[in-house]
Amino acid sequence: MSKIRKLMPFFPVALFAIAALSGCSNDSKGDKKVLRVLNSEDYIYEAEQNEYWCDECEDYIKRELVKETEVDGETVHYHVLNETHQLEFDEEESIWYCDECEDEVDEADVKEGQDEAGTFNYHNAEVEHEVSMDMDMIDQFAEYWADTHDGEEIRVIYDTFDTNETMFNELKTGKTTYDICIPSDYMIQKLYVNDMLHKFTIRDEIWENISPFIESTYKKIEATNMNDNVTASMKDYSVPYMWGTMGVMYNPSYYVNNKGVTEDQIHELMNDWDSLYGEVLQGSFSIKDSVRDTFAVSLIHTYAEEIANTTDHDELTAIFNRHEDKTFEEVKVDMNKLKANAFGFETDSGKTDMTTQKIGANMCWSGDATWAITEARDNDLELFYTIPTTFKGEEGKSASNLWFDCFCMPKNAKDEANPTEKELAQYELAEEFIKFMCMPENAMQNCDYVGYTPATGGDAMLDYMYYCYDIRGEVGAEFIYDEETGEAIPVEDLVEGEDYIAYDLSYFYNGSLSEEYVEIDAAVLYADPDYVGRELSAQYPLEETLDRCAIMNDMGNEATGKLLDMWESVRTNSLPVWAIVLLCFEVAIGLGLGAYFIAKKVSRKKLKKARKNA
Amino acid sequence: MKFRFQRKYFSIPYIIFLALFIIVPMFFIAYYAFSNSSGAFSFEAAKKFFTDPAKFQVILVSLFIAIQTTLICLIIGYPIAYILAKKEYNHNVVLIMLFIMPMWINFVLRTAATRDILFAIGLTGGKHPYVATLIGMVYNYLPFVILPLYSTMLKLDRSQMEAAADLGASPIQVFFKNTIPQSMPGIISAVTMTLMPVMSSYVISDALSEGNITLIGNSIYLSFANSQWNNGSFTALLLLILVLLTMWGTNGRKSEEVRGGLW
Asked: Is the per-residue pLDDT at A135 higher than 70?
């Protein structure tokens, strides 16, 4: 007791320390408005921050080289370059004229150079290139908010979560509050069921940028609130941010070299989920260490026959969302087969293992595939992505998973029925952020960083697709230029199937494009054949493929619990026979030695006793 | 009351740290282990643990990996520690450094590198999950075995061994009847440093076996990642009790006069 009394003076200090530690939360700083965003860590989200980007040099420019000037009251940044311009001698006026500077050049500045073609004349000119600041989307939003709200400054806190479940726990326990969360579709349903989502107020403004295809698919996702039993479309409570599919990424050369099959055979094999259970792929592919994804694949494989016989999408979705005990039992058998045939489970090593050719195929999400395929392209490695929809050689008979990651606003108001003004302002800020992120220009930039496909349509997104995948390079181009000869080829002369593959994205873009674009049928890409079956197919699958993709809903607590139990028993494995024998052998030796020593000790004691007695 | 500074006040930061990060979390674990998802007291998690055959498999596999790792580490580490502790090598700091140095690099990084090496020699976790995991485990825990053994070996009474040899014991007899009993504290310390940590480790087995081997550590992680906090906590609690049991068991056997080991 006396010890405690001596420590007494230190208790206030300790309390203060604890209070200071817990008071470090971000809310207390300043009176700026704060927007708190919680995103999945799958999305790499940072730009080369605070660097200047020059469009003409296609490079980042160092800060110290950038100069500032004022043009018509606006600040413009530029940098000065020394460039060599070729010159021609104008014989009529007997002056040196530079085409690029569009000006006469003093004879003293003219220099003579030599290259393979012969001698030529040039001068060193100073050229000014305008540059723009490359900013994070978040900084851009802060700027946008300031522009639209009389220069009001805000601060954005951006955090990430690793799995949807941890995010749910974080929100549920209420330790942290976020204005915006970006979980997956099934988690949105779960959040709604638990009455944790705030309804959007300006949803029409936000949704007008979203592709009609996404809208019509997404509005079918429903959930029932467990407090008031109201069933609502998740469209009113969330907005899709990114979407994609579940498929197989594969490396044909791996199989050609290791398994002796031809490349055509591999393309055919990969188009069928059943190949993952077959001999050719044995021990060469990874599956996702995530219960819902692997469960989806096994479910499709278990009920392949039934899925092949479905005629409409609702039937398919119904099969896809089975979660009775019987289903779990049947799928578990199938999952064990899949596991036995796979190389292993992976959480995020799969994409790098593909690019380093450790494995030949990987069950993955479309966005990861886009990243890996682009990465491998730089190393001259050809990776492909496919959504297996073939069943027994028949196209369009199998199925796959379609998923969305969506913005939502957790309920933060103390009294949701009568929120205070401050709380309302907070919701407004969050909605503005979501609206901002869904604008085509911003979605385009985001897509460029992330590699996943935004749910946003619109001209700017399509322009970006042209820039990435279309051989014409931009919408409405009439000529393309031959890479080697520089010759202009009219677009009409291009041969379909040879120079390009017509890739119809109108299912996604129609309804979100301007009239000008609709008139020229801009949504049909003249896709570079090099990107079809690869990045383009990963980012935007064809319509008939998407017809075979269904959404897996939240199963509810009870079924999820059973699913997890099943998953754990699939993930654990029994010890092989040699290991059991070895273990028994070691335990036997251990016990034997122990018994020996104890026996010895006992006999020694007895001896001692006998001696004493004697 | 006049305040006088005492030396023991220096321990206050540590006491706060201890309370915040070790003792309080343990109560949390105990709380979650014996409550259900709605927070009420229940034995649900315990019941689930003891009726699930999957958990039994997990324990068996963990035990197997842990025992093998410890044995292999001892077999490799004992002679090394013995040689290092000999007079002619003892001055050679470089040699000792070589064995300790890997500990300075984070084990996650080392495991990633080990994975690449195993791929290069064709011992992939996909085909040989047990071998790959054991290699990774032994590589990681070898320093923890060598270090305590080395420090006990330094204090070996060599004259006692010479005396035994003079009195007619064969080298084998000297080894089993003199060297091993003398270095027993080191061995016990080495076993406690490997056996339990290996059972609960999770990164190494996950990365090197490509997810094909699930140890208790993986199982706990799986529970928490899927927000089954109660089940995870109960498994963690069992592991904690197991650790305490081994500590208690080994502490009792450690003789007072021969010091050594890491603690």
From this structure: no
Q: Provide the b/e sequence for B16-39 (b: ≥16 CB within 10 Å).
A: beeeeeeeeeeeebeebbbbebee
Subunit contact B60:A575, Cβ cutoff 8 A:
yes
B16 contacts on A by Cβ (under 8 Å): 14, 17-18
Give one DSSP letter per residue of B212-258, joined into a string.
----HHHHHHHHHHTT-HHHHHHHHHHHHHHHHHHHHHHHHHS-SSS
pLDDT at B225 over 90: no
Interface check B17 vs A, CB under 8 A: no
List, as own/partner pairs, every contact residues A6-13 make where C-beta atoms lie below 8 angstroms and the sequence separation is at least 24, other chains included: A6/B6, A7/B12, A9/B3, A10/B9, A10/B12, A13/B12
- Say yes or no: A355 contacts chain B, CB-CB below 8 A: no
The Cα–Cα gap between B70 and B66 comes to: 6
Nearest residue on chain B to A345, judged by CA atoms? B211
pLDDT: which is higher, A451 or A308: A308
> Tens digit of pLDDT for each residue in B199-214?
888 889 888 988 888 8
Helices (DSSP H) in A362-439: which residue ranges?
A: 366-378, 421-438
User: Do the Cβ atoms of B222 and A568 come within 8 Å?
Assistant: yes
Domain chopping of chain A, boundaries? 51-134, 140-240+405-454, 244-404+537-571, 459-527, 584-614
Identity of the highest mean pLDDT range in A3-12, A15-24, B165-174: B165-174
The encoded tokens of residue B191 equal 């076993």
**Residue-level pLDDT at A109:** 79
Does B98 reach chain A within 8 Å, measured CB to CB?
no
Q: For residues B97 and B174, what is the distance between their CA atoms, to the nearest angstrom?
A: 29
Given a contact cutoff of 8 angstroms between Cβ atoms, the answer to whether A162 and A41 are in contact is yes
If phi over 0 gives left and psi between -120 and 50 gives alpha, with beta otherwise, what is residue B24? alpha
Residues sharing a CB contact under 8 Å with residue A116, sequence separation 6 or more, in sequence order:
none
Q: Which helix (H) or strand (E) holds A419?
A: none
- ipTM of the shown complex: 0.81
CATH architecture entry for A244-404+537-571: 3-Layer(aba) Sandwich (3.40)
Query: Rounded to an integer, what distance in angstroms lies between the CA atom of residue A173 and that of residue A177?
Result: 10
Which residues does A74 contact at the CB level (< 8 Å), separation at least 6?
Answer: none
Note whether A569 contacts B54, CB cutoff 8 Å: yes
Query: Do A244-404+537-571 and A140-240+405-454 have the same topology in CATH?
Result: yes
List the domains of chain B with CATH numbers.
Answer: 53-253 (1.10.3720.10)
A6 with B219: Cβ contact below 8 A:
no
Nearest by CB to B225, which of A165, A342, A572? A165
Length of chain B counted residue by residue: 263
Least CB-CB distance to A10: which of B12, B214, B218? Answer: B12
Within 8 A of A573 by CB-CB distance, chain B residues are: 57, 61, 212-214
Structure tokens at B231: 């089940």
Amino acid at A548: R
Helix count (H) and strand count (E) of chain A? 24, 26
Tell whether B123 is within 8 A of chain A (Cβ): no
Which residues 272-311 of A have a C-beta within 8 angstroms of B?
A: 283, 286, 289, 291
Return the residue in B2, B210, B216, B234 with the most chain A beta carbons within 10 A, the one to mutate for interface testing: B210
Contact list, A349 vs chain B (CB under 8 Å): 207
Q: Which helix H or strand E contains A517, and what residues bound it?
A: helix A515-519
Q: Which pLDDT tens digit goes with each residue over A536-556?
A: 988 899 988 888 888 888 888
Instruction: Determine what percent of chain A is predicted with pLDDT higher than 90.
Output: 14
Task: Please state the pTM of the whole predicted model.
Answer: 0.80
Rounded CA-CA distance B138/B72 in Å is 7
Q: What is the CATH number of domain A140-240+405-454?
A: 3.40.190.10
Question: Would you call B69 an interface residue with chain A, using a CB distance cutoff of 8 Å?
Answer: no
- Cβ separation A358–B211 shorter than 8 A: no
